[in-house]
Amino acid sequence: MSGRSFAFSCRKSIDNTIYNDKNTHVNQKLYNRNGELSVNESRFYAISHDFRGAEDIPFVRSDSEYTSVRCHYENNPWCEIPFLFPTKDRLNERNVRVRTVDERLKFKNPLKLLGISKKHGVDQTDGQGTIEYSFSVIGTGQISAYIIPDATWLITNTSVTAPPDPQENMFLYFTCSTPSNVCEWIFRITIKKTTKSPSDDKPLLVGISSHHLHGADMQSESIKNMIAKIEENRVHSPEWTVTASAWNVDQVYKYF
Which residues are in the Endoplasmic reticulum metallopeptidase 1-like C-terminal domain (predicted)? Predict the structure, then answer.
């Protein structure tokens, strides 16, 4: 197995390229700080990279179940949207709509996010507390990770890259190639306290999206039906001449 990983911070993009529509069917498991599963749903995200927004997509406009995105975690800059790459600053509120769907995705190899270790320390330069984490993620060959400390912590280091300055959050991306499309990614994150105030026992939120971009698990029946509807209607109406990329995603968010 060969793999590559990349790191990004959540800062404004200057690339104004227009992309086609992205549609993802997502199994979404969101845990609270006590380790309890607070959201366990299957959702369909319609993401338009066109300036006209998601409401211009015919199957979104005609379906009242599609709504604006409401963030589950108040400090999550990605708002649980299953971004493949860190392109959120290309989008406005009008570009994304979401709805729950009845079809529950059944992956042959479900996503696994495990905390391997958690070591408390002290920064010798200023006496502030630090925590070094080690994680294991088992998923597909295309994995996006969203690293989000609490407000009184900053990311100072990762095994992917050492940020030039402490970061409020980071987007990490891992890609690899195996015949089974199953990969394990082990990485480390170090965060540092910025104040002397008391902190929660679990100050780090980690989100993982495992993207099924090929293979038998790539598209659900909901996605296939959507594509069939587009192909059927584009013959008769120019408003249906959309080019939609669509795939399944297995997503989990946990506190550590």
Answer: 24-243
